[in-house]
Every structure is written in C-alpha cells, then in structure tokens.
Specification:
This protein is mainly alpha-helical and about 290 residues long. The chain has 13 helices and two strands; from the N terminus they run H-E-E-H-H-H-H-H-H-H-H-H-H-H-H. Helix 9 crosses helix 13 and helix 10 crosses helix 13.
Length: about 290
Amino acid sequence: MEEMTRAHLIAYDVERDLMPLVFAHCDYSLAVGEGTKIAYNLPALERQIVDRFLVGKPHIDMKVYRVAFRSDVYNVALFDRVKERIPQEELSLPVQRQIVSELHDLTDVYSILAVLDIAIRFMASSCGSPNIFLDQYIHETLRMPPDSGLISPKAKQACQLKHVLAMWRLLSVEKGRRLALADREPFEHVPAKYREEMPLKVKNDLQKALKKLNIDGFLNDLLEVIILELGQWEETNNIEDYELGLAMQDLHGSTLKGLDDIPREVQLKHIIHCWTTTIKLEADMTRLH
C-alpha cells in the first residue's frame, strides 16, 4: 500500500457520475395490466463504467502477506533444526528456580517468551556459537530494542544460545502453571476434544501416581506433547482415546520413570485436565513442605 499514488485512486460521486450511466442503460416498457417494466443492460453498463473510470489507471501490484500465529506453527521440526545448528543443554535446577523467582508478573513471562520466539526462529535457520550469551544475541545480532530482553538478571547472566530451548520450556511451563493456578485457560489453541474432565476416581488415582513421579520432568514432557505434538497426531483416528502414559512413551519418546503407573483410564482427551490437576497437586505438595 505504501507504493500507491493518487493516480491509482478512483474518485466519483454517486448522484453525479454513476446514476446518469445507470439511467442511460435501462429500458422502460409498458404492458397492459402489468404497469411499467424496467430492464437494465448490465453488460453495456459495465463497459461504460470501465471506460470512464478504469481505463488508463495504473495497475496495483497486489502483494499478499501470510501471517502465522506462534501457537499454530511451533512443531518438533522447528526445534530439531535449532538442535542441529546449535547443540542444546539443560539449565540447572537452581538456575531455573532463580529465574522463575525473578519474574514477578505474568506479563514478564509473556514478554520473554515473545523474544525467545523470535530468537528460536532465527536460530533455526542460522548458525552460531553455543556459548554466546542469549541476551547479547538478542540485542547485538537480532538488534532488538533495549527494553526487549530476558528481564531476569539470572537469565541474562547464565543463559547462552545452548540454553534457548530449555529457557523456552521453563517459561512455557511457568506460563501454564500461573494460568492454571489462576483458574484461567493455559492452552487456548488446544481443540475441545482434549479438554474432557476425568471422573473423580480416575483423577484421584492419577494424583497417587503423580506423587511417585518427577513432577518437573512430567510437566516438561506434557508441555511438549500439548504444544508441539498433539497437532501432528491429529491424523491418527480416535487419537484422543489413546492412553496418556502410552502416548508419552510410545509417541513422544519420554523415558521418565513412573509413566507406567499412570492409570490407563487417563487418555489424551483428558490432557488439559491432567495438566491443571498436576499443577494444583504440585502447589499443594509445595505448601505442605
């Protein structure tokens, strides 16, 4: 649109310019008992409008830009490309906990995730040293404004390019945790068929199994299934009836110990309810300790 000029524009007045053309291309006829009939010569009217208003005008070169929302385009292939170009490592638990403790507002989590989204997509198509600090990469390579960044002082100090996926996972889990604890929707993009609530007995059995699991590891795997993989499994018939524990092992490839203890009745159609149940159980266990 920025390349358009006044020469591209068409200006007309309906009463002064269009209506005389319409009247000039309509035929009136009278029939006994039927009154006046009006017939419009539309092909001739169209030619007249083209000749008068369009001929001689420069053509507009239409450019259509496709927009894809972040939640729609995250997938395993994108993350695999990042890993191929820049080998990834995990953040230590003390570092993870300190980063999360320094993010006092949910808007901070959203802001960092938006920055990480841009960084991940650039890193998927370019190479770089794994040891470059992520905050340095964001500002010096991507040229993002000074008020964009990792916010957390510990993240700025500790996170390098080799930690970008670990950082994304940490903050995505934290976003889902804070939303669930506030009784808000943690994963808006997930179809309704995965939002079915578990019966009370199944929920209680799941909570017993979760107490034997590494909940941090379980949430990390569950997050990747929800955000990265559910959409790819859609082509499988009745995938929502697949056992959650088996799906995490067989389809996601999780090696987390204790997944066999998840009740068979917990299926992929319960995955969002499973997330909120796990988050609230984790919060209860933390309060007790």
